[in-house]
Design goal:
single chain, about 425 residues, mainly alpha, Growth Hormone, Chain: A, 19 helices, globular
């Protein structure tokens, strides 16, 4: 199995695990007796921890191999699953959330994301990256949809066996740890060295190898990376209001939807989101990556805001499902755009630095959403999220509609073999 295929398969496994726990998490915490505010606090903790770890991994990527970083991420993922399965009190669980890899969102906000993106970008030529990222995300979203559907199993198992519901739910987090072990088995055979371009001489190659640890993580791409990080942060601040765990909580509090219904809703939403990503490479070739990101994101944000005013659960579900047709189409275009506008040697740092502020920004808002839902069941989190993300789309188009979607670098990416 090629290295790129290992990453895609690993992403699929992780997508299933993330889809399962993102829907299970809110219900499980409520069953433990946590208030909506504390549920929001745990979600915030997971996102803060992901941001810190992503930054550490990205800034240290040029001192080690990306494959080695992925292996360590698997170890941490397994420990996170064990921690959530074993601990039931708030503060210790909050600590595990902060230092772990649990993902409360339908998308990927974990430490794996920038490392995997940089790993694949080094092995695939530029024009093929958007398609590769679409496949990478497509498999993950399909798997996440299946995971969301499977999240209804603990309730059914508890009713069929008479076991305590929280005990069965804890087994779901054991399954999360098992998924980490499976991904570890894939990643442990990653190459010990990163691919390098052809060298003019052994002397110059040795000099480059000696100098590599001393160079800064970001050089020529510093300005655009920081600018994109700021814009992506605005988008993620809006997304933090409506991570999957909080949408599950809102649907339960507002309309009394059962576990089985919410599992089916997010299964369908995941399938729609997966299918929509197939259009991203086609649109990117015709109108560019930035316009693909913006023109597919705007209708999704409008539908999200409208869902806040839904008079019943059926209308809310319909709006959220239609939104799912557009909401994920920007993801492969965004990933490919970041990789395209920076030199190859700065991709890991660029991916990390554009994702870390996203994680930090998304970590600031679930707590606010939890507080809002503690006082009212109206969809204020959805309305605020839609308006915030709409602002991001407009600013992205203003600042980067004419940005060249390629960078000239003395180092060329290595073709996939």
């Amino acid at each position: 199995m090629s290295d790129v295929r290992r990453v895609v398969v690993g992403r699929v496994i992780r997508g299933f695990a993330d889809g399962f726990v993102s829907v299970l998490l809110a219900q499980y915490l409520l069953d433990l007796g946590f208030t909506p505010f504390r549920v929001g606090a745990v979600v915030t903790g997971t996102l803060i921890g992901s941001a810190a770890l992503t930054l550490a991994f990205g800034l240290g990527a040029h001192r080690t191999t990306l494959g080695r970083l992925l292996v360590w991420a698997c170890v941490l993922m397994a420990a996170t699953g064990v921690g959530f399965a074993a601990i039931t009190t708030f503060w210790p669980l909050f600590l595990v959330a902060v230092v772990g890899t649990l993902n409360p969102s339908a998308g990927d906000v974990s430490v794996f994301l920038p490392t995997e993106q940089a790993f694949m970008a080094d092995r695939v030529e530029g024009p093929a990256r958007t398609r590769l990222y679409a496949i990478y995300n497509l498999g993950a979203v399909f798997a996440g949809a299946l995971g969301a559907l499977a999240s209804g199993l603990p309730d059914r198992i508890a009713h069929a066996t008479g076991w305590q519901l929280t005990s069965v739910e804890r087994l779901g987090f054991v399954g999360y740890a098992v998924a980490a072990v499976a991904i570890f088995a894939l990643y442990r055979s990653m190459p010990s060295r990163e691919p390098v371009p052809p060298r003019r001489s052994r002397r110059s190659g040795a000099a480059d190898a000696e100098a590599r640890p001393k160079r800064p993580a970001l050089g020529s791409s510093r300005r655009i990376v920081l600018e994109l990080a700021a814009l992506f942060s605005l988008d993620s601040a809006g997304s933090g209001f409506v991570v999957t765990s909080l949408l599950v909580l809102w649907l339960h509090l507002r309309f009394g939807l059962s576990r089985g219904v919410t599992a089916e809703v997010f299964f369908a939403a995941g399938l729609m989101g997966a299918c929509s990503q197939l259009l991203a490479p086609v649109l990117a070739r015709r109108i560019g990556m930035v316009r693909t990101m913006v023109f597919t994101h705007l209708p999704a944000n409008a539908l999200l805001a409208l869902a806040a005013f839904a008079p019943n659960g059926g209308v809310a579900i319909a709006l959220l499902l239609v939104r799912a047709l557009f909401a994920q189409m920007d993801v492969p275009a965004r990933q490919a755009f970041v990789m395209a506008v920076v030199p190859p040697e700065e991709r890991a740092a660029a991916s990390s630095i554009t994702n870390v502020p996203r994680s930090l920004a998304s970590a600031t808002t679930p707590l606010i959403a939890g507080a809002l839902l503690s006082h009212t069941t109206f969809g204020w989190p959805l309305l605020i999220a839609g308006a915030t993300k709409f602002s991001y789309d407009i600013l992205l188009l203003i600042f980067h509609r004419n940005t060249p979607e390629a960078v000239v670098s003395p180092r060329a990416p290595v073709s996939a073999g």
